[in-house]
């Protein structure tokens, strides 16, 4: 896996976290105020992680990853003294492996001076190895418990993360609309996969900085190793996303250990950040739709 952070809370555990503890939501979190545009971190246009600076309480700005493949927002363990009393210890998934994690009431945290809407709880984990792998200090990740409140556009050509008013925007300019469905833990998937088949859909995972992955049967079809591709499939090295074919793609295959792990996300295909960076991507999370538009600067990026 290419330095991707994968902190995933299974549905049953996620439901338990949301049911107890936490703090009351502010009145404007029903229709949260929108942060201003944020500059993408260097290299995001080439599929590196999208890192934004988040301020916790009255502290300093800290680097967090935008991760649509994480159910819950996660803080580095070193920040636990700022999170108050631990509510409980829970188990989280990390790319097919389980880890123990502390659960805390969600603090107030801010992006560009705007307080972010949150769920009632956050979790903690050790990000030292991830920071070393990425080559950049990482103090946490922002998961779907926060992102689900917003309509977010990732414009890799312009190097911008935009928070949009999804109820009043001209969506005709956003490109092809792909419905998003909940996998059961708050993370979202499309019906498509990068192999171009119609068998199994794909988790949308901006925390994975590769192109993505396939379940074994579809991977075999895609590579043509075991049998001819099913009707509509695309042989390697091509892939399909948003109705467009493109080359220079690297997809991983889920191994038997991952499939047997019990991690909900290891039962579907995945689409990572590098594949998404070929487009202007708009996530209208409240309305469960992802939009893909080929940028005018396509030839500049690829």
User: What's the count of strands?
Assistant: 23
The overall pLDDT, averaged over residues, is 81
Tell me the structural class: alpha+beta
Based on CA atoms alone, the radius of gyration comes out at 19 Å
Number of structural domains: 2
CATH class of the largest domain: Mainly Beta
Spell out the helices and strands N to C: HEEEEEEEEEHEHEEEEEEEHEEEHEHEEH
The percent of residues in helical segments reads 10-25%
**Low-pLDDT segments:** 1-29, 298-302
The CATH superfamily of the largest domain appears as Acid Proteases
Strand order, sheet with most strands: 5-6-9-4-10-3-2-7-8
Describe the fold and architecture:
- By secondary structure, this protein is an alpha+beta fold.
- It folds into two domains: 11-163, Acid Proteases (Cathepsin D, subunit A, domain 1, Beta Barrel), CATH 2.40.70; 172-296, Cathepsin D, subunit A, domain 1, CATH 2.40.70.
- 13% of the residues lie in helices and 31% in strands.
- The strands form four sheets. It has a nine-stranded mixed β-sheet with strand order 5-6-9-4-10-3-2-7-8.
- The longest helix has 9 residues, at 11-19.
Name its key features.
302 residues; alpha+beta; Cathepsin D, subunit A, domain 1; 9-stranded mixed β-sheet; 7 helices; 23 strands; 13% helix; disordered C terminus
Provide a brief overview of the structure:
By secondary structure, this protein is α+β, with helices and mostly antiparallel strands. It has helices at 11-19, 128-134, 144-147, 216-223, 256-259, 273-276, 298-301; strands spanning 38-39, 51-56, 61-66, 74-76, 88-94, 97-105, 109-111, 114-115, 121-125, 140-142, 151-155, 160-164, 176-179, 181-182, 188-190, 202-204, 212-214, 239-241, 244-246, 251-253, 269-271, 280-284, 289-293.
């Amino acid at each position: 896996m290419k330095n991707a952070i994968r902190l995933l809370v299974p549905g049953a555990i996620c439901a338990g976290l949301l049911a107890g503890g936490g703090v009351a939501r502010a009145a404007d979190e029903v229709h949260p105020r929108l942060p201003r545009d944020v500059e993408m971190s260097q290299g995001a246009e080439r599929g590196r992680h999208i890192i934004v600076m988040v301020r916790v309480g009255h502290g300093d700005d800290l680097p967090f990853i935008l991760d649509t493949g994480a159910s819950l927002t996660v803080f580095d363990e070193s920040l636990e003294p700022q999170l108050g009393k631990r509510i409980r210890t829970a188990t989280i998934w990390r790319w097919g492996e389980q880890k123990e994690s502390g659960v805390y009431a969600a603090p107030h945290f801010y992006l560009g001076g705007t307080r972010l809407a949150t769920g009632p709880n956050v979790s903690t984990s050790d990000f030292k190895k991830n920071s070393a792998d990425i080559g950049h200090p990482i103090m946490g990740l922002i998961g779907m418990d926060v992102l689900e409140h917003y309509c977010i556009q990732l414009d890799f050509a312009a190097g911008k993360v935009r928070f949009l008013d999804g109820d009043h925007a001209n969506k005709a300019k956003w490109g092809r609309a792909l419905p998003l469905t909940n996998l059961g833990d708050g993370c979202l998937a499309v019906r498509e996969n990068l192999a171009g088949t119609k068998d199994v859909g794909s988790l949308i995972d901006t925390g994975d900085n590769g192109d993505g992955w396939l379940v074994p049967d579809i991977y075999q079809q895609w590579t043509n190793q075991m049998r001819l591709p099913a009707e509509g499939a695309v042989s390697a090295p091509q892939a399909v996303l948003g109705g467009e074919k493109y080359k220079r793609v690297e997809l991983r295959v889920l191994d038997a250990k991952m499939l047997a792990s019990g991690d909900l996300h290891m039962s579907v295909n995945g689409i990572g950040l590098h594949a998404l960076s070929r487009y202007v991507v708009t996530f209208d999370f409240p309305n469960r739709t992802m939009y893909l538009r080929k940028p005018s600067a396509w030839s500049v990026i690829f």
